[in-house]
Fold:
Amino acid sequence: MKPGMALLFRSSVDSAARWQSELVRLSPELDIRIWPEFGDPSEIDYALVWHPETGLLASLPNLKLILSLGAGVDHILGDPQLPRGVPIVRLVDPYLTAAMSEYVALQVLRLHRQDVDYRIQQEAGIWRELPQKNAGERPVGILGLGEIGQHAGGKLASLGFPVSGWSRSAKTIAGFTTYAGAAGLMQMLGKTEILVCLLPLTSQTEGILCARTFAALPVGAAIVNAGRGRHLVEEDLIPALDSGQLSAAALDVFQEEPLPPGHPFWHHPRVLVTPHIAGITNPATAAPIIIDSIRRCEEGRPLVNQVDPAQGY
Ligand code: GLV
Structure:
């Protein structure tokens, strides 16, 4: 890499010190500037970001590449001043993918083994065995068949769950039943007892977890949302839980993060809340991927995992 290349680091999560040491270790010649005191904006060549503020990227006139600190890029594409023509790459880190699959497996097993009901029983001091299905009788449907959806589906299939997957465009994946398009979604929902959302957030997927979707699931189905908060129409969830249409929801992402104090999800006995930790980006495994993208850009080689802004991922 040419000496003097400057990278702006901007994250809403407190991870700058760990990122700096990993990036410097791999590429000592990289000049790392941590937001907000990053000097002359015209000196910045690369921006490594998570939830950059509106207009930040547009203020960097010589920006060559935008690198996402996460797998999703809605936090970048949502900026109305996003500079057109500057390529964007999403982070595809096998360790992050595996972490997401762990979260999905954890929640699917909790829902399958009725852990929500056993916690409610424990709270009331009740010792009672509930009827239990086998994994093979508990169909799981995955929304989103990108790297993460496919990986998580494979793990669930190996635990014995019948796995289906839905994506915008048709895909064939060994070991899964796949569906595509609006009609395909309704078909899959009708036979899904645990619905897992791993979609990217786009104008087409926003609000996909809504009353209509819940009504298409069999009574007593459960949902897992590890996509984005805006996939879920939050006001539709509590009525679906309270009517028994849904038995539980495991949510890692929310319309507003941190989830505001007093939000009904905090204390609902059938909602499992985690603070957006399903796939935490680990600088030790992600930094080599970031450096590889910068080197590709410097050397004029093709980028990997480049985002198509028109598609939204
Ligand atoms: C986390 O939400 C990510 O996009 O990686």
Q: What stands out?
A: Residues 94-112 form the longest helix (19 residues). Residues 70-72, 279, 281 surround glyoxylic acid (CB under 6 Å). The chain has a mean pLDDT of 97.
